Amino acid sequence: MRYTKNDIRNIPLTEFMAALGEKPVKAFGDMKLYYAPQRDDPEPMLVVDTNTNRWYDHSTDQSGDIIDLAAMKMNPNLYMDPRDFILKYMNEYEQGKELLAMARRPHEPITVGLDIKKVKLTDFMKALGQEHPVAADGNLRIYNAPYDANPGPTMVINTETNLWRDTKSGAYGGIYDLAYELTGSCNMSELNLYIAGQMSGMEKSQKVDSPRQEQEPDKPKRKMRL
Predict the structure, then answer these.
(1) 123 with 162: CB under 8 angstroms?
(2) Of all helices (H) and strands (E), which one includes residue 209?
(3) Beta strands in the chain (DSSP E)
(4) pLDDT in tens, 135-183
(5) Are residues 36 and 80 in the same domain?
(6) CA 65 to centroid of chain Cα atoms
(7) Which residue among 74, 102, 130 closes a domain?
(8) Which of these three, 48, 69, 102, is where a domain ends?
(9) Range of 59's domain?
(10) How far apart are CA 93 and CA 214, in angstroms?
(11) How crowded is the C-beta side of 49, counted as CA atoms within 13 Å?
């Protein structure tokens, strides 16, 4: 899944802590004890109440929700909005879990005979759920950037070169570069698995959705005249 700003209030703090690389040291019913992610404490001081989805810091006597914790953890020179910080870590965390789940199913072949370097970027975008571009200009196709927390029409695909670029961030490249933007992984095996999985899902969907051709009724046989 991919989180948006509308999902932030519903994200469990325990999941956010896991995305930050923190694991609970102890658990007491609904309470979980952590090392505070924003400091390097010798003792665990942060308590997360899984029932209220709020935290309390025994060291500073502060408390709050996920946004308050993100504001304390993030680097203000890199992030102006703590929600952007949350989305970055949560989406990377979810993508990592998805890739791990896919890697644990090697016995089920995803795609047979797929030459990923020959996959058209426009077909890959269809596999990602964007059947059509939002605009077209000659050999250029404009899409909502699928890797952006707030997708906008900033991704441009050149159908002749099969390359893309983002007019906002300046990112560019081929299908592997796009897969990297979506997954955050630099591992070629993981990228191959991700791309193949997306393309395989599209092919299966097309097979299911394609209407069956109705058989024409048999034409009546001509009667022989005597």
Answers:
(1) no
(2) helix 188-209
(3) 26-28, 31-34, 46-49, 54-57, 62-64, 135-137, 140-143, 155-158, 163-166, 172-173
(4) 999 999 999 999 988 889 999 999 999 999 999 888 899 999 999 999 9
(5) yes
(6) 24
(7) 102
(8) 102
(9) 5-102
(10) 47
(11) 10
